Amino acid sequence: MLIGKVTGNIWATRKLDGLNGFKLMIVQLITPSEQEISTSLVAVDTVGAGIGDTVLIARGGAARRAILPSESPVDEAIIGIVDNMEVFS
């Protein structure tokens, strides 16, 4: 899993039927100490995340399982909203 911060929305008026009902969100990846990683990605939102939320991201097969029973080609899915992080050094 990855950690990220939701930075935007994507609107797609035409998409696969299996993605209907899901929001597409732009997520900026971050480290556990909340420093931005230069990579952003588009993820299917399965939990109702909003702009500014810190989220957990699943990739690959785990992301596809998050949108079952759909067989849509999904690489990343938001599977949780982080309430708090505690990093020990």
Q: What CATH architecture label applies?
A: Beta Barrel
CATH class placement: Mainly Beta
Global outline: globular
| N→C terminal distance | 20 Å
Per DSSP E runs of 2 or more residues, the count of β-strands stands at 5
Sequence stretches where pLDDT stays below 50 over 5 or more residues:
none
The rounded Rg comes to 13 Å
Q: Tell me about the biggest sheet? A: 5 strands, mixed, barrel
Instruction: Examine the coordinates and then state which fold CATH places here, giving the name of the CATH topology.
Output: OB fold (Dihydrolipoamide Acetyltransferase, E2P)
Name the helix and strand elements from N-terminus to C-terminus, one letter apiece.
EEEEHE
Count of individual helical segments: 1
Rounded mean pLDDT is 91
What proportion of the residues form beta strands (DSSP E)?
A: 35-45%
Q: What helical percentage do the residues reach?
A: under 10%
Helix/strand-derived category reads mainly beta
